[in-house]
Design goal:
Chain B: InterPro entries: PP2A_PR55 (IPR000009), PP2A_PR55_CS (IPR018067), WD40/YVTN_repeat-like_dom_sf (IPR015943), WD40_repeat_dom_sf (IPR036322), WD40_rpt (IPR001680). The structure holds two protein chains of two kinds. Chain A is mainly alpha-helical. Among the domains of chain A are: 1-30; 31-72. Chain A has helices at residues 4-25, 34-76, 80-93, 98-108, 111-118, 144-148, 272-278, 293-300, and strands at 172-176, 183-187, 190-192. Chain A has a three-stranded antiparallel β-sheet with strand order 1-2-3, with no helix packed on it. In chain A, helix 2 packs antiparallel against helix 3, helix 2 (34-76) runs parallel beside helix 4 and helix 2 packs across helix 5. Chain A starts with a helix and ends with a helix. Chain B is an all-beta fold. Chain B has a domain at 30-128 and 131-141 and 173-186. In chain B, strand 3 and strand 4 (64-70) form a beta hairpin. The chains are: A mainly alpha, B mainly beta. Chain A binds chain B through residues 2, 10-11, 14, 17, 21, 29-31, 33-36, 38-39, 42-43, 46-47, 50, 157-158, 162, 164, 263-269, 299, 301-302, and chain B through 101, 103-106, 108, 129, 191-192, 210-211, 235-241, 243, 260, 288, 291-297, 300, 347, 350-351, 353, 356.
């Protein structure tokens, strides 16, 4: 079985390789090969699922950390504002590499003893999550007992549903322009910069633990193109009490071409019309919604 | 219970059916250019013996068909080895351009299928991605001479100069083999044709592309019947494509088609005009412990072939060969690993596109041995009766006449023994995708990239 860390890295490279193949197939002699592109789309879907599961595991671990922080705050009875902000900052910063969060989580496991030192934790990595893949469709509910352990374990891939039928409703579209190689997300008709979080959706696990969280926290994920310097994360408050929801995990701040690969070829024909309406020029620093024609042409050829 | 032995062995063969490990294979001939610089047009794309085994046809990427003919054997000499020599060469398909879709149509010959011989001429079907052609190959060994109105070179004579009349006669001439296109079956396929198969009724044949299968009559070119259509109403919901199709060798109402999902459907044309509903579905559940990113790719079936007796069929996917009993749908009766050592290399094979290679497979005359190709110019003989297998190599180094082929071994890991080849040393550019077995004798044709090797059984 593929370990979490390996499959996260391999999944990314597989995704880029697969996209390159699809792109190249447009110019191959003899026309687009339906069979080959279908098989490549399966690899893309598999890689995306694995990658998203890993990301979800990260988020969940971070969530665990947050809960621990809450507990420690309450125990310490310190000035809620100061400590919360510290915790938020550190929490936001710790959504970086798995190893980082793992170490943080590990450090936090004996909460009561380490609580005082929490605020001094200085994660060195920024929120330099590589251009992650959006996950509208979530795996079958992860085993809660797995997520209780903060340290990264080999992800139980068997929990993942590789079935092509696992196609959750998709309220956002992500497009990759194969000519300029920029990625853009459009959610509910609004163009998003990938790094902005709709935080009410952030970190809502498919099956969160029954605990309700009273603490607001911010969660920010940057894209891989940004210099991973240590920029404080944008944060926003969001209503609590949504943790027990059963909405699919929507880390809407992450762009993903693969979001349009629901099952088989589902979604390959992008919702170009929707996207064009949605262009409102917001937050277009790195991403630009380039013309989707290049991408859709490949599919329309069928 | 073994299939009835129908073959007609020229040489004494040891073992129950022969052809496997009891048989020693010797080099016989190699056709094609020697130099390593391969012209793309010369890449062999299909190999097929005719029903008697006397003729061997190859198609290449350049749209050419080359037919070899076995020399008439000299029965008085038991050691005589008949050789295959070029019989006819012709350009079957040319590159075309579809202006409506702005697509170039490759001239590569995807498949050749021979028709059973009915008269002096030979007929074969050859197909590229879009068009199937029926070719007549006939011999001419005499020509008429002594026309009254024409000169020998064809010019018409001035009528005023004719003073006598004579009867034209046939005179012998050097043998000339002519190939002429008799039918062109075009414009019936939107997607790329991957298979053609002649029905046992000798009147109809099927052609299959990624999503549809059409039934043709050999005499009628302007009409074909669609018998299978798996195109979804919404192309976004596409999950599988047709990868191969074949008629049953004896039952003219039965055919099978394989899919990219690793399933085979058997259809009965008597059940309904449109055979979207299968009569039987052959599928083996996936082994969850082998799950990987590439599970869908390696389970895609690249070839399906009925056994000569019609009781079994064989499928080839990327790593294995499976033999299915037509009466058992839930699992194959036999599974052979072709190159299991590649399972850990799937990621690299995906990167270099080798994982998409479509290997073919074939039966020997009495269905006791099956053969398929691999990389590094290796090919595998899988003896069903003795449950043994051997790996052989088609290489220029073993090209001495009647040189016996030595079994090859691939070392998957650990210590490499002498004479073994490690997986990392395999040349993945040297692949044997197309092989053919003489219908009656132990003669095999193995196509490397641009060479055709002919091996025969060792004669003592």
């Amino acid at each position: 079985m593929i370990s979490t860390m390996e499959c996260a890295v391999d999944a990314q490279s597989l995704i880029s390789i697969s996209l390159r193949k699809i792109h190249n197939s447009r110019t191959q002699r003899g026309g687009i090969k339906l069979h080959k592109n279908l098989l490549v789309s399966y690899v893309l879907r598999n890689a995306r699922q694995v990658y998203m599961n890993e990301k979800y595991a990260e988020i969940y671990r971070m969530q665990q950390y947050e809960e621990v922080m809450t507990v420690c705050n309450e125990i310490q009875e310190l000035n809620p504002l100061d400590l919360v902000e510290d915790c938020e900052e550190q929490t936001g910063d710790c959504c970086g590499s798995v190893s980082e969060s793992a170490s943080l989580c590990g450090a936090l496991l004996p909460v009561s003893h380490q609580a005082p030192s929490v605020q001094h934790i200085q994660p060195s990595s920024a929120c330099s999550v590589p251009l992650a893949l959006q996950n509208e469709e979530v795996c079958k509910s992860p085993d809660p007992s797995f997520y209780r352990s903060c340290c990264a374990e080999a992800y139980p891939v068997s929990n993942c549903d590789f079935s092509p039928v696992n196609n959750m409703h998709c309220n956002k579209t992500t497009v990759l322009d194969l000519d300029t190689h920029v990625v853009t997300t459009v959610e509910n008709g609004y163009l998003h910069q990938d790094c902005c979080a709709s935080l009410q959706q952030c970190c809502q696990g498919a099956q969160s633990p029954a605990k309700k969280r009273k603490l607001d926290f911010g969660y920010y994920v940057s894209e891989i193109e940004e210099v991973p310097d240590f920029t404080p994360c944008k944060r926003a408050k969001f209503e609590d009490s949504s943790y027990a929801c059963t909405e699919p995990l929507d880390t809407s701040n992450i762009s993903n071409l693969i979001s349009i690969f629901g099952s088989g070829f589902t979604g390959l024909v992008s919702r170009q019309a929707d996207l064009e309406q949605a262009l409102n020029g917001q937050f277009c620093s790195k991403q630009a919604l380039a013309s989707l024609g290049a991408w859709t042409r490949a599919i329309v050829a069928f | 219970m073994w299939p009835v032995t129908k073959c007609n062995w020229r040489f004494v063969v040891s073992g129950a059916g022969g052809g496997g490990n009891d048989v020693q294979w010797c080099f016989s001939q190699v056709k094609g250019a020697i130099d390593d610089d391969v012209a793309e047009a010369d890449i062999i794309s299909t190999v097929e013996f005719n029903h008697s085994g006397e003729l061997l046809a190859t198609g290449d990427k350049g749209g050419r068909v080359v037919i070899f003919q076995q020399e008439t054997e000299n029965k008085s000499q038991s050691q005589f080895r008949s050789e295959y020599n070029v019989y006819s060469t012709f350009q079957s398909h040319e590159p075309e351009f579809d202006y409506l879709k702005s697509l170039e149509i490759e001239e590569k010959i995807n498949k050749i299928r021979w028709l059973p011989q009915k008269n002096a001429a030979q007929f074969l079907l050859s197909t590229n991605d879009k068009t199937i052609k029926l070719w007549k190959i006939s011999e001419r060994d005499k020509r008429p001479e002594g026309y009254n109105l024409k000169e020998e070179d064809g010019r018409y004579r001035d009528a005023a100069t004719i003073t006598t009349l004579r009867v034209p006669v046939f005179r012998p001439m050097d043998l000339m083999v002519e190939a002429s296109p008799r039918r062109v079956f075009a414009n019936a396929h939107t997607y790329h044709i991957n298979s053609i198969s002649v029905n046992s009724d000798n009147e109809t044949y099927l052609s299959a592309d990624d999503l549809r299968i059409n039934l043709w009559h050999l005499e009628i070119t302007d009409r074909s019947f669609n018998i299978v259509d798996i195109k979804p109403a919404n192309m976004e919901e596409l999950t599988e494509v047709i990868t191969a199709a074949e008629f049953h060798p004896h039952q003219c109402n039965t055919f099978v088609y394989s899919s990219s999902k690793g399933t085979i459907r058997l259809c009965d044309m008597r059940a309904s005009a449109l055979c979207d509903k299968h009569s039987k579905l052959f599928e083996e559940p996936e082994d969850p412990s082998n799950r990987s990113f590439f599970s869908e790719i390696i389970s895609s079936i690249s070839d399906v072939k009925f056994s000569h007796n019609g009781r079994y069929m064989m499928t080839r996917d990327y790593l294995s060969v499976k033999i299915w009993d037509l009466n058992m749908e839930n699992r194959p009766v036999e599974t052979y690993q072709v190159h299991e050592y590649l399972r850990s290399k799937l990621c690299s094979l995906y990167e270099n596109d080798c994982i998409f290679d479509k290997f073919e497979c074939c039966w020997n005359g009495n269905d006791s041995v099956v053969m398929t190709g691999s990389y590094n110019n290796f090919f595998r003989m899988l003896d069903r009766s003795q449950r043994r297998d051997v790996t052989l190599e088609a290489s220029r180094e073993s090209c001495k006449p009647r040189q016996v082929l030595k079994p090859r071994r691939v070392c998957a890991g650990g210590k490499r023994k002498k004479d073994e080849i490690s997986v990392d040393s395999l040349d993945f550019n040297k692949k044997i995708l197309h092989t053919a077995w003489h219908p009656q004798e132990n003669i095999i044709a193995v196509a490397t990239t641009n060479n055709l090797y002919i091996f025969q059984e060792k004669v003592n």
